[in-house]
Amino acid sequence: MNRVIFDELCLGDICDDSRAEFLRTIDGLAERGAQGVVLGCTEIGLLVRPEDTDAPLFDTTLIHARGAALRALED
After folding, report:
1. Which residues, listed in sequence order, are joined to residue 39 by a DSSP beta bridge?
2. I need a labelling partner for 72 at 20 to 30 A (CA). Which of 18, 25, 40, 62 fits?
């Protein structure tokens, strides 16, 4: 996963083979009982989308951006 993140995604290279490997991992976790998967690196959301899997995904980039926007609107 680190190779994909640093050698592909950080360079803007989105590869279908890498997406398939991430999805195999995500789906395997779900089959073993994971109730959701945290996309804890900002670039992973570029590769894996919610419509790609039945497993609930928590994209930390979107979560933080939404939180920051809501906080900015409070003032």
Report:
1. 59
2. 40
